[in-house]
Write a structure and sequence with these properties.
Blueprint: E1 3-5, H1 11-19, E2 24-26, H2 28-34, H3 57-60, H4 65-89, H5 108-114
Parallel strand pairs: 1-2
Amino acid sequence: MVQTDGQIKTGRDVAIAALLGADEFGIATASLVTQGCIMLRKCHLNTCSVGIATQDPEHEDRYKPLVESKNIHRFLETVRWQIAALTRELGYRNVRDLNRADLVATTPEAAAMTGLSYEPQWRVPAVAAGG
């Protein structure tokens, strides 16, 4: 069983991890941000300013579980739909079918370094990549 965690925020991130062989995916930070966490990194002090990681009634009242549970649900559903779309695009019915054979290099240099086949048609356009 291969588990992966760290900077996984989207269905694309999960799909890439699955292509690389991961069986389980941790998306804890993204889930915290989805419910309003502003990453002050003081959870252990019991003074969470948004009320997620506290038992202090004054701070706890700031957290709205009904609202935030809907935000988490929307986020996880979005990730699920992204994974499903990418899985179907690669010709599979189940995310568990994704494998390293589906990975391709989009530049000759990447192909030389990784041993993956060079498939320039899979290159993400600069606009879609944020560039």
